[in-house]
Structures are given as structure tokens and as C-alpha cells.
Amino acid sequence: MAHASEPTSTIDPEEAARFGAMAADWWDPKGSSAMLHKLNPVRLKYIREQIDHHWETDETGLKPLAGRSAADVGCGAGLLAEPLARLGARVTGIDAAAENIAVAREHALGQGLEIDYRTGGAEALEGRFDLVTSLEVIEHVADPAAFVGALAAAVAEDGLLILSTPARTMWSKLLLVDLAEGLGRIPRGTHDWNRFVAPDELRAMVAAAGLEVVDVTGLGFSLTRGFTLGEDLSLNYLLTAKRVPK
């Protein structure tokens, strides 16, 4: 595992320890990661749309990532890595918490999925990947700009980078910190609102890393419909970028 004392590391040891402590019940839809289980279908819908649009794949096909490589950074116990593998990708999953990687490996084995799980930060990526994802992670790293730079460096020519993160607004503070954590829907201490990243800030980081932003879509919440995709970026959002042609 990378150490915070290493100058190239973007890992925040306290954050890694916090999420590592949640490893045992990561796959329990009613456990400490319940919110991620609710988010996952909407996030997967977005990712599938971006895949189909970028590579002009058949939107009805079951394996649009067949023959392609994918890396999920901050993969936790594999909530996104496993669906990416089912979509046909050769998947590498990286997480700062060794506990998460252990659970991820065991769960993938039980599902009959071959996923290359590794402990470390974004700097642990080797080579380039057609698809690089990192969802709800950047707000937990030590150096967001360096983190985006490491992710961007791992994006192959004609590849995609897909990120998601809460926006730094009063609405996100109210819903994600005050209410969700206050009511126990998310473990207390999961979020530090001051570390949330505004859409314009993330756009600038991605551009500085040499990628072109092609889409930013809001991820909102409705009492009647649950999590939804839309134009409102005030709670949470997803961003897709591609490598700028030389």
C-alpha cells in the first residue's frame, strides 16, 4: 500500500482507514454502504450511455466493453468493478484500503469474475486503459489535482475518464452531511463538506491534466423517484472526459 509520506501519493491515510473499517458489510445493501447501492444503478446508466456514445456501440448489446480495458480507482469492495467486468471489460480495481481489496477479491471469486484488484492509490495504475472511472473518491484524497493528473495519465488514446463527486453547495451540505449522516443513512464522518469539489473546479483540473470534458450531468435526489440524472449539479454530478487529440 502506498504511504502518505511518499511525495507522489494522493492517499489520505485517515480516509483509507475509515473506509477500510466498512469493508466487511460493503456488499450489504442495508449496511454502511447502503447509499452507494442506491446510487449504483443510476451511475451505471450514465456510464453505459457514455460508453455507447463515445464508441458508438450497440446500446442493446450486453458486452459493450468487450476487448477493452477498464480501471476503477477507489473501487471499494467492487460495486462498480464487477458490473464493468460483466460489460466485457478486463478490469483493474485499485483501493487505498487493503481491507476493501480483500473483500473485493473474495466477492469476485464467488461471482466467477476475474478482476485484477490491487492496494494503492491512483499512482499504482500501470499502463493505460480504455476506461478509467473514479466515483465518489476525489473528495477523499490528499491532493485532488494530482489525483486527477494520475487518472488522466492512465487514459488511453480514444479512452474515457468518468468521475463523480458531490458538489460543494449548501444543498449538498444539508442533504449529505446534516441529514444523511445525522440520521444515520451514511456513517458519521464520511464526508467533509469543505473537501467537496465544485463542477468548475473539477473541469479545470481535468483540462489541466490534458483531457477534454465532453459531458457533465447532475445526479439529484427526489423523494418520489430516488436518485436521478439531470441538469441540476447542486447535489452531485458525473463528469466524462476524453483525451485531447494531438
Structure description:
The chain has helices spanning about 15-20, 35-55, 80-85, 100-110, 145-155, 170-180, 200-210; strands at about 70-75, 90-95, 115-120, 130-135, 155-165, 210-220, 225-230, 235-245. The chain has one domain: Vaccinia Virus protein VP39 (Rossmann fold, 3-Layer(aba) Sandwich), CATH 3.40.50.150. Mean pLDDT is about 90; it is low at about 1-5. β4 (about 130-135), α5 (about 145-155) and β5 form a beta-alpha-beta unit. It has about 250 residues and is α/β, with parallel strands linked by helices.
Output the CATH topology.
Answer: Rossmann fold
Strand order of the largest sheet: 3-2-1-4-5-8-6-7
Distance between the termini: 34 Å
- Regions with little confidence, pLDDT below 50 for 5+ residues: 1-7
| CATH architecture group name | 3-Layer(aba) Sandwich
Percent of residues in helices comes to: 25-40%
What's the domain count? 1
| Beta content | 15-25%
What's the story with the biggest beta sheet?
8 strands, mixed
Radius of gyration: 17 Å
Enumerate how many helices there are, as a single number. 7
- Quaternary structure state of the chains depicted: single chain
Overall outline: globular
Taken in chain order, the helices and strands follow as HHEHEHEEHEHHEEE
CATH superfamily: Vaccinia Virus protein VP39
Mean pLDDT: 88
Structural class: alpha/beta
CATH class: Alpha Beta
Key phrases:
eight-stranded mixed beta sheet, 7 helices, alpha/beta
Describe, in short, the structure shown.
The protein is built from seven helices and eight strands. It is of the alpha/beta class and 246 residues long.
